[in-house]
Amino acid sequence: MQMGSGRGLRPTWYEIDLGAVRHNVRELRRLVGPGVAIYACLKRNAYGCGAAPVSRACVEAGADGLAVGNIDDAVAIRAAGIAAPILLYPTCLPDVARQVELLDLIPSVSTVEEAAAWDAALTRPRKVFLKVDVGLLRGGATAAEFPLLLDRLPHLPNLECAGLYGHFFSYGASGAPGHYPRQFVRMQAAVEAARAAGVAVPIAMVSSTNAVLDHPEMDLTGVDPGRLLYGLAGSDSPARRGTFRPALAAFKTRLLIRKAVGPDDADGEAPPFLPRPGMTIGILPIGWGDGLPRSFPAGAGVLVRGRKVPVLGPVHLEHTRIDLTDCPEARPGDEVVLVGRQGTAEIPLAACAAAWGIDETTFHGQMRDHVPRVYL
Ligand SMILES: Cc1ncc(COP(=O)(O)O)c(C=O)c1O
Fold first, then answer.
1. What's the helix, strand, coil split of the chain in %, to 5?
2. How many helices (H) and strands (E) does the chain have?
3. Average pLDDT value for the chain
4. Protein residue with least CA distance to atom 8, ligand 1
5. 40 Cα to the center of ligand 1, angstroms
6. Distance 305 CA to ligand 1 centre (A)
7. Distance from C-alpha of 98 to C-alpha of 87, rounded to nearest angstrom
8. Which of residues 230, 264, 291 is at a domain's end?
9. Hey, which of 224, 240, 363 would you mutate to test ligand 1's pocket, going by the most ligand atoms within 8 Å of its Cβ?
C-alpha cells in the first residue's frame, strides 16, 4: 500500500486499485491493437484517482501519451518524474506558455486567434494539437474555422502540428451513438483537409470510451478514452468485448464517537431526527464537504462491523450521523465503508451512486482531492 496526498492523518480515504488501471490499459491495447496510439484521458485529477499515480500505471501498461484537462494535473505528473507526452485539452490560456515549455506540454489550438496568441507567447517551436469541433460546440475549430487555421499555420513559426483530435457529442454511459457516424465524417474531412494542405498529421483521434467500444472503425491512429480506464464503462459492447475493472476499490472512514441518545436530547423546533428510547448513534468525521450528498437518501447506508446501518440525515459539512442501535458492538475507530467490501458485505460503487441519485462517473467527478488516496 502506498499513500497518496494527505498522508493518512485524516481518518477518511479512498482506495485506488492501480492494478485495475493497468489491466484496463492492457485490455484497451488488446482491443485497439499495436498500431493505434493510446492517450490516457486523466481529466479531473484522473477522474478523482490521482493524476500522477494513475498516469504512471497507464504508461507502465503501455499508454503512449497522457491527456489532462487542467495544467495542475500536468504539473503533478511531471513532478512525479513521468516523461510521456502530455496533451493539454483546452483549459489554459497562452499566458502559461513558459510553464508549458518548462513542462514540455502539448497545448490544444481551436481558432486562428488562439493559434496566433500561442505563437506569440512561445519562445521556440512547440508541438500543438489542432482540435476539431465535430458538433459538441465546446473547444475545437468549426468547419468554417478549420481551413483558416490550416492556412495560417505555416505562418506561425512556433507552432508544429502534433496531430488532430476531436470529441464526440455524447452524454452518459449510454451516449448518443446514433450521432457518431455524422460526427466522424466531420473528423475525417478535417484530417483529409489537413493532409491536402500539406500539414503532417502524426496522430488523429476522436474516440473516447463509447466510440472505442462500439465503433472500432473510428479508431483512426489514436484514441483518448477516460471512463474505460477507471472501469466506468460497460464491458459487453457488441463490437468489442473487454473486461474493465473498477479503479475505485473503496471509500472509507472510521467511527469517531458513539453515544446513547433519548427523546429528550433533541432540541430545536426541527431536530435533525427524533431519537427513540434506547437509541445509539455514531458520528463519522466526513460530510458533504467530502463529497457526500447533503440530504442523504433514506435507505442508503454504510457498513460497520460487516453490517449495513442507516445514515441519519441531514449530512453536515464535515460530520455525518449513523444509527448504531442495531450494531451495539461498534466502537470508535471502527472502519466504516461507504463504497467497498467489509467481511462478506459489500456496497458496490454502482449501488452507492444510485442511492445518492447520481451515476458512477459523476461520483468520480465529485471525489475530493483533499481526501487521502491509498494505492493498492
Ligand atoms: C476531449 C476529450 N477526450 C476524451 C474524453 C474522455 O471521455 P470518456 O470518459 O467518455 O472516455 C473527454 C471527456 O470529457 C474529453 O473531453
1. 30, 25, 45
2. 11, 20
3. 94
4. 226
5. 9
6. 39
7. 16
8. 230
9. 224
The C-alpha angle with vertex 25 and arms to 368 and 238, in degrees rounded to 5, equals 105
Centre of ligand 1 to C-alpha 304, Å, is 36
Q: What CATH number does the domain containing 362 carry?
A: 2.40.37.10
Residue 100 and residue 82: Cα distance in Å, rounded?
Answer: 15
Q: What is the pLDDT of residues 32-71, one digit of tens each?
A: 999 999 999 999 999 999 999 999 999 999 999 999 999 9
The pLDDT, as a whole number, for residue 171 is: 56
Residue 4 has pLDDT above 50, yes or no: no
- Beta strand 301-304 with 248-254: parallel, antiparallel or unpaired? unpaired
Alpha carbons 222 and 212: distance in angstroms, whole number: 10
Query: What's the structural domain count of the chain?
Result: 2
Residues 18 and 54: beta-carbon distance below 8 Å: yes
Q: Which pLDDT score, from 0 to 100, does residue 64 have?
A: 98
Q: What residues make up the domain containing 356? A: 248-375
pLDDT value of residue 6: 46
